[in-house]
Specification:
With about 325 residues, the chain is an alpha/beta fold. Helices cover about 45% and strands about 10% of the residues. Bound molecules: NADP nicotinamide-adenine-dinucleotide phosphate.
Length: about 325
């Protein structure tokens, strides 16, 4: 697998901490008046951390929220409804490690004629080592990147984006992607074993892949004027469950840093809410916020040739996975 910016989780955590002290000039532009009224907002990975906070904040700003997750859906619904009693919230099952679940999710939206105004692609996993999914893919690669590629393409195909209302797709990414190495197509979609230092490295690298996809998507959806806003955000360091699978001792150390110095998910969600709701982003696409700071992503992310190549390779890999499923069904092994 290719290199990311960090290979030490403690250094990664401390680097995030120093980011907190940089100026956040746009913070004052999100006001209590900014409302999602009349808009449908989907949040992936909404049962925990930032995703939960995004769903709650969007509900309190009058969105019709569909909070998605692979588990704890009832708990999520009850908890958000208690905190935002006037909120319009429902939940839907979406396991991003499972191609069938992604299809079922989109089919359900289509069957119910749901038109999505704001899509928060938030879910991600951070694993201490390589883990292979039943479909043969590396779990972190699939959940953090390829599943998002598939989900977005299926939503577009199904006509589930509210194209007449300039829908917004917000990628929740990480500034750790800066400096990750070029996308390596010899290894793309192939499973390799790796340990904890490589895992944190790969997390950053997969965010670079995700951001390259976001910019290519923005190019394809907006050939002239902006039809669909596709923007990327790093929420900065947030005290969430992202370290839940870290090895025990490391987890204890990281939890202490996270609890004492990192932001709450409620606070960290605000820049992403700003991207999703603010008039400031009307007719703007392909932008990047690092918390509330406008910034450039790694220059590799913006190269049209890199975006086109990633699209082509991702499409091929997806088709291959679909063909494997069809073969299994045909042979009665699915
Ligand atoms: N925390 C930070 O400091 C930080 C910094 C920069 C960027 N981010 C980004 O912020 C986003 C949210 O992460 P977080 O910090 O809030 O961590 P989190 O609390 O662990 O939330 C991650 C969410 O993703 C979900 N998820 C994982 N695998 C999934 C799957 N196969 N299918 C569906 N959902 C799945 C998790 O569900 P389960 O509970 O079922 O696992 C959880 O709801 C991520 O994109 C992360 O990369 C976080």
């Amino acid at each position: 697998m290719s290199k990311g910016r960090f290979d030490n989780p403690l250094i990664a955590a401390l680097s995030g901490f120093f980011d907190l002290f940089r100026a956040q000039p746009l913070a004052a532009r999100l006001t209590s008046e900014d409302s999602f009224s009349g808009r449908t907002v989907i949040v992936t990975g909404a049962n925990s951390g930032l995703g939960y906070a995004l769903a709650q904040e969007a509900a309190s700003r009058e969105a019709k929220v569909i909070a998605c997750g692979r588990r704890q859906l009832e708990q999520t619904l009850t908890s958000i409804s208690e905190k935002v009693p006037q909120g319009d919230v429902s939940t839907m099952l979406l396991d991003l490690s499972d191609l069938a679940s992604i299809h079922e999710f989109v089919d359900n939206l289509k069957a119910n004629s749901v038109k999505v105004d704001v899509l928060y692609l938030n879910a991600a996993t951070t694993l201490p080592e390589a883990r292979q999914l039943p479909n043969g893919q590396d779990e972190m690669f699939f959940v953090n990147y390829l599943a998002n590629f598939i989900l977005v393409n299926l939503l577009i195909e199904a006509g589930c984006l509210a194209d007449d209302r300039q829908p917004r797709i917000v990628f929740i990414s990480s500034d750790s992607h800066q400096g990750a190495s070029e996308i390596d197509y010899d290894e793309f979609g192939r499973f390799f074993s790796y340990g904890v230092s490589k895992a944190i490295n790969n997390y950053s690298y997969f965010k670079l892949v995700l951001n390259t996809f976001a910019i290519e998507l923005s190019r394809r959806l907006n050939p002239g004027t902006v039809v669909t806003q596709v923007n990327v955000i790093c929420p900065g360091p947030v005290n969430t469950n992202i370290i839940k699978e870290a090895p025990f001792l490391l987890r204890i150390m990281l939890r202490a840093i996270f609890t004492v110095v990192f932001k709450s998910p409620e606070k960290a969600a605000l820049p992403a809410i700003y991207l999703g709701v603010s008039q400031d982003f009307e007719n703007r696409s392909g932008e990047y916020l690092h918390m509330f700071r406008e910034k450039q992503m790694d220059e590799k992310v913006y190269r049209p040739d890199a975006g086109a190549k990633l699209w082509e390779e991702s499409m091929q890999l997806w088709q291959q996975l679909e063909a494997n499923v069809s073969r299994k069904i045909a042979s009665g092994k699915a």
